[in-house]
Amino acid sequence: VTPKEELRLAMVSVIRIDVTPVKRLVIVAGVAVAILLVAIIIGASGPPVYDHVSQFAYDCPGNSHTWDELACNGVNLQDPTQFWEQNVPQATALNRFWSLQFAPFTILNTDTAPQMNLLVQVELIGKNDPSDDGQWFLISNDTTPVSVICPSNPCTPTNIIYEEALEYNYYHVRVWMVDGQTNLGDVQFTFWEAHSGFSKLELAFRNIYLIITSLVTGIYFWRMRRIPMSDWCWEQRAAAVLLPVAILQANPFYALEYAARSWFLHFIDALFSTLFTATFLLVALLSIDKLRLEETRVEFNRHHIPKLIVCGVYAVIGLTLFAWINMRDRLDPIYGRPDSVTGIEVLFYISATIYVCILIWLAILLVMTVPVATAKPYIMTRFLFIGIPTSVFTLSILIGIFVGTFGPFNMTCLSMMFFNTLYHVYVWLMAYGYWPVEERFASSNPREEDSIARLPFVRTGDGDRDNQADV
User: Fold this and answer.
1) Antiparallel, parallel or unpaired: β 98-106 and 184-194
2) How far is residue 143's CA from residue 153's CA, in Å, rounded to a whole number?
3) CA angle, residues 165, 201, 49, in degrees to nearest 5
4) 414 near 43, Cβ under 8 Å?
5) Which distant-in-sequence residues (6+ apart) come within 8 Å of 305 by Cβ?
6) Which is nearest to 87 in space by CA: 168, 167, 172?
7) Nearest alpha carbon to residue 166 among 94, 100, 101, 102
8) What's residue 243's pLDDT?
């Protein structure tokens, strides 16, 4: 029986990492690390995610927060007949949104961290005509209950406006207290918007990764078309799944979010992002477990069902969480803290907990696979190729969660560049390592003896199979 026939009987496809010299694999790993380092440098030196500007209701000289009717130029919101109003800094499509943050001062002793319950009236109008005679249109005029804790001054800030639709070019906001607030002092108002430079950077690199991953995917499938799908090994099928999902993660429709403010586009972005993360976790769990059990067949067995269920639950909860936040902010610009809704808080903690549990599960499988891989050279090569990048991936996610960066939450330029680059470098490595190379059997290059010895069908001197995978 020839090696090719024996390999086909064992249903094991030979892939590039089975025959590539270790030195070349080290070079490939070095290139991947270099790409990540460049992404880190760009992210660390990149623009901030948000711009902000603050104003005080009192507007007193020297930034004093003690009301003096003669010296101060602003208003005292303790008086329900007075109101604070301001034209909103103009926001463009690249700014994505603008919000108004409300941070009151209290005249009480902050040592006891008193709580203030305020009833804030917020009026928002907009127009497109820049002239003074342009007609203003009422967007909302709502009463917003605000509850703040004051461990210091100013008290805990709260969003009273979050405007993402940007249906008008110019906005004007007016704020006053519905009832007299005897404990209220000065108020700090802060306008926030996304930094246009950050939006340009994110859009540029999403498109770069979209183009490169699309090319890699096309080349990979063009090569795999020559091999019957029944002969694809598990790793090749995993790459065939992750590559198209990585294209979706880059979101071919992302640029449309700047042109058309639609809740559906936000939903699509949340769907693609969650789909990639859940697919990666499922593929990683199955790949490591199949190596641990020395499974060479690609069938989905019963012991894989728990992995599918857990990753599916994470996908549903994560999608619900991100879509809920995006669509809620899109439907009404007047809200309290963006994360203040109890249901969203619960979903966030559940999603993060499931994510961490899956990563711990994956880490346990990696440790359990080490003894099996150590005893079998061909498993060791495949284990290192999937294990090292997966470990880097999972450790990066865990670090991100513990420092407060999880998905779209608390995103920084560094986290955006690093994680997007990490996702795509990971699938590029898969396409490289799982490239089919069955024609290499005809090679007689003596330099390839070490790599050929890693193949699962190689025989030992006594005629027995060495490291033959069970069928």
Assistant:
1) antiparallel
2) 24
3) 60
4) yes
5) none
6) 172
7) 94
8) 95
408-429 residue pLDDT tens: 566 788 888 998 999 999 999 9
Res. 463: pLDDT tops 60 = no
pTM of the predicted model over 0.85: no
- Please state, in angstroms and rounded to a whole number, the distance separating the CA atoms of residues 304 and 282: 9
Cβ atoms of 237 and 286 within 8 Å: the answer is no
| Residue 132: CB atoms within 10 Å | 5
Q: Which residue has the tokens 């409300």?
A: 102
Give yes or no for residue 87 having a pLDDT over 70.
Answer: yes
392: how many CB neighbours lie within 10 A of its CB? 16
Q: Give CA–CA dist 94/20, Å, rounded.
A: 46
List the end-to-end C-alpha distance of the chain, in Å, as a whole number.
17
- Cβ–Cβ under 8 Å, residues 210 and 204: no
